[in-house]
Design goal:
There is one protein chain. Helix content is about 0%, strand content about 40%. By secondary structure, the chain is mainly beta. It has one helix and 15 strands. The chain has one domain: Galactose-binding domain-like (Jelly Rolls, Sandwich).
Length: about 170
Amino acid sequence: MPDYPYPIRLRGPWECEPVARWIGGADGSTVYETDHLPPAGRVRVPGEWSEALGPGFRGRVRFRRRFHAPTGLEAHERLMLVIEGIDPSGDVQLNGRHLGRVESMEETKTFDVTGLVAANNELVIEVEFTGHDADPVLGRTPDHPTRVGGSGDQPTTGGDQPTTGGRLGEVRL
């Protein structure tokens, strides 16, 4: 009898597609621009979008991973999708069905996907990162607050290291 749970890690490659760029107005307004976006790329998960889009990108990005159904599941077994955090938060879909939201890198979220997995599957996680002190979309301060400073207008944390966004923790079945 096999040991359970047997994890299937969905490490990569993941497609990383920018959907909109966040631009903060001088008056504090938020504008999402869909023109002049960087090209889509590929990333490994756990990881972040900076390897594909550059560390200065702020906005909304769609991570996409295709996978085949696990084999050998018995009728009584449950299939769970586990996501170990998203920075700052993101929505999760499997095969076009919204599963829920992960609210931070500190939150591990488990979704029961028994019955939702087909022979071929598409997992989509849409992440939004503004790199701004107050996130106007989420209406809260991000878990890793940033400030404008350092070199140019790149957000930074305490020192001069740029804050990167769009981080995904381990994703597994």
